[in-house]
UniProtKB/TrEMBL annotation:
It comes from Cyclobacterium marinum (strain ATCC 25205 / DSM 745 / LMG 13164 / NCIMB 1802). This is Helix-turn-helix, type 11 domain-containing protein. InterPro entries: CBASS_pafABC_assoc_protein, DeoR_HTH, HTH_11, PafC-like, WCX_dom, WH-like_DNA-bd_sf, WH_DNA-bd_sf, WYL_dom. Keywords: Transcription, Transcription regulation. Residues 3-58 form the HTH deoR-type domain. The keyword Membrane does not apply. SUPFAM superfamilies: Winged helix' DNA-binding domain.
Length: 319
């Protein structure tokens, strides 16, 4: 790419975000930071009103370019979802072309929409998996994303997975992710006074309240680490064949299940548990179809339990 084309592309990228770090420009065009500084200076000399802020990056003066197309909130959030899906379901070249096109589209968004999308980018995850039919609850997804962007409390009815009970919940949302055919919401439930995972297709009558929450919740990506370090929970990862998942589908939610994703030809499940002993005694019932990825202490404990069971069987006297 020649310099003129690169300067044009940088200008477009500047219009796609409220703050654009120099490192992000350098990574995209595979150039040095010194070259980035020279390019920004060239744009300034050409009359482009760019300001720099330490720790945040470069910003175009508001209103420098009037966008020819206006997007509403739902359309702007849909762009983010499209970006997450394309990244997982296409090859690298197609994904790169889409990213380039998306930057041009984002350049016409209002500053407030850019800020909302930047914030949501850390709060929405789309895990790679086999292609399945997604859960249907578009209204809930849109309202959750709006609440995530604005920091407002959600009010909804929720049908529990195990007991099929309908309860009313007030939830401070911290993130949303998609895995194996379903969208999930993670948030602080005021009813249970703790963080909970909600399957979005089981959410009913959802509304965004006028209440803002002030709690400094973790981002979705740091949620597992925060739980593990702050609450002394143990992270457990297991794998099994997709055909075997059905044997734990109705029970995994009682065992600290957090997420599920496809890893090559296996299904990988992550749990956060408070008791290694309790989990070991549960999973041992299907030990022949499970591979323990981590931690090793779980494998060691299951080995001890199996040895004890074998000795008990040998000692048994049958009549």
């Amino acid at each position: 790419m020649n310099r003129l084309n690169r300067l044009t592309a940088i200008l477009t990228q500047l219009q796609s975000k409220r703050h654009l770090p120099a490192e992000e420009i350098a990574n995209r065009f595979e150039i040095s930071l010194r070259t980035v500084y020279r390019d920004i200076r060239a744009l300034e000399e050409a009359g482009v009103p760019i300001t720099g802020e330490a720790g945040k990056g470069y910003t175009l003066v508001e209103g420098y370019r009037l966008p020819p197309v206006m997007f509403d909130e739902k359309e702007a959030f849909s762009l983010l979802l499209a970006e997450k899906v394309i990244e997982k379901f296409t090859d690298k070249e197609i994904s790169q072309h889409f990213q380039s096109a998306l930057i041009k589209i984002k350049s016409v968004l209002k500053d407030q929409q850019k800020l909302a999308i930047d914030h949501l980018d850390e709060q929405v995850i789309y895990y790679k998996h086999e292609l399945t039919t997604p859960s249907k609850n578009e209204k809930a997804i849109q309202r959750i994303m709006s609440a995530l962007a604005t920091g407002k409390v959600l009010q909804f009815d929720y049908i529990s997975f195990i007991k099929e009970e309908n309860t009313s919940r007030a939830v401070e949302p911290i993130g949303m992710y998609y895995s194996l055919g379903n969208w999930y919401l993670i948030g602080y439930c005021k009813l249970r006074k703790d963080y909970r995972t909600f399957r979005i297709d089981r959410i009913q009558k959802i509304n965004i309240t006028e209440e803002y929450f002030t709690t400094n919740h973790p981002s979705l990506k740091s949620y597992l680490k925060k739980m593990e370090e702050g609450n002394h929970l143990i992270k457990i990862t297991i794998q099994m064949d997709p055909s075997h998942v059905k044997y734990i589908e109705t029970h995994k939610y009682n065992q600290g299940f957090v997420m599920q994703e496809k890893v090559e030809d296996k299904v990988q499940l992550t749990f956060m548990v408070g008791s290694m002993e309790f989990f070991a005694r549960w999973i041992i019932s299907i030990g022949d179809i499970v591979t323990i990825i981590s931690p090793k202490t779980l494998s060691d404990r299951m080995s001890t339990l199996l040895n004890n069971m074998t000795e008990k069987l040998k000692e048994a006297k049958y009549h």
